[in-house]
Amino acid sequence: MRWGLVGASTIAAQHMIGAIRATGGKIAAVVSTTRARADDFAASHAIPAAGDQLALILDDASIGAVYISSTNEKHHAQALAAIAAGKHVLCEKPLALTVAEAAGMIRAAHVAGVVFATNHHLRCSGSHRAIRDLIRGGRIGRVLSLRLFHAVHLPPNLQGWRINDASAGGGVIPDITVHDADVARFLLGEDPVAVVAQMGTSGMGQGVEDSAMSIWTMPSGAMVQSHESFTHPFAGSGLEVHGDKGSIFARGVMTQQPVGEIELVTAAGREVVPYSTHNLYAQGVADFLAAVAGQGAPAASGEDGIASLAVALAVREAARTGQRQLVKVPA
Ligand code: NDP
Known about the structure:
Shape: globular
CATH superfamily of the largest domain: Dihydrodipicolinate Reductase, domain 2
Strand order of the largest sheet: 14-13-12-11-7-10-9-8-15
Distance between the termini: 32 Å
Order of helices and strands: EHEHEHEHEHEHEHHEEEEEEEHHE
CATH topology of the largest domain: Dihydrodipicolinate Reductase, domain 2
Helix content: 25-40%
Bound molecules: NADPH dihydro-nicotinamide-adenine-dinucleotide phosphate
Structural class: alpha/beta
């Protein structure tokens, strides 16, 4: 597959270029809003073509797939343009700033007959897949609750639009709560239907929240508790799933790397749970390519991206108003 990159971003540089190349892909071009930046990025990553116009990618018939990792407010228009040009699209989360925009992207992809996927990497990790297998295999019985710990310290090189630009989609809720929503949906196999929440700033956010806590109602009756922050240097990440026959404790697993420990505790005692340590992003690209080849679905579809966005926006609205919010996912 020949790929075009839209966005000369950190995530492309640190993870996705390697993931695309690891799955046999060729990166044909990168487009940035700034010509000089595109040129620098292309030179640093051995990408043969660079420019500041989407047409560089969209008019190249040899490019089959587009990876979009610009700032969040740009995803919508860029994805629609790529879809209209007949490209398959792997789009970063959050898909857009509103559920209506995200729904428009997915509708357009369906009409055009292209694959449209969301780059939710955590469901691609061996650890999360192993946890889901434990749940599905009945090892903890009926799920009673899920606790998601995702309070991290945003590295200095990312302390830009994420912490000070609401119009670019900044804030911890569009940044990390979307991932947690996707994890809950992936692990439990059901969609949150209502949320209560609080958000605030704790040292980094300027005009956008840098911390959030929320509680989600699931159709099964399971309770979900979620914590995200940009300001916690030593909190560590993880998740716990508690059932009536066992509990799963996963530490250090809400990351970009295939790391962390999983422990299963039941009446039989404690056991360490092994899992595959493959690259999360390469797995996501491999699943995307399989979908393009007509063999299955991408790891996270466009519909998954809408659902995670809908939960995140409901969390923000619940925190803003102090009122419980229903999660509105378009049918
Ligand atoms: P960056 O800030 O690194 O990049 C986003 C855009 O900002 C780039 O496309 C670029 O615009 C511009 N930019 C980046 N660095 C500079 C710079 N030094 N000077 C000027 N402009 C710059 O963001 P991320 O890579 O962290 O995030 C990009 C997207 O990916 C977001 O949607 C985010 O939510 C998502 N993401 C997803 C992750 C995942 O695991 N799925 C992890 C991290 C991010 P231009 O291209 O126009 O030059």
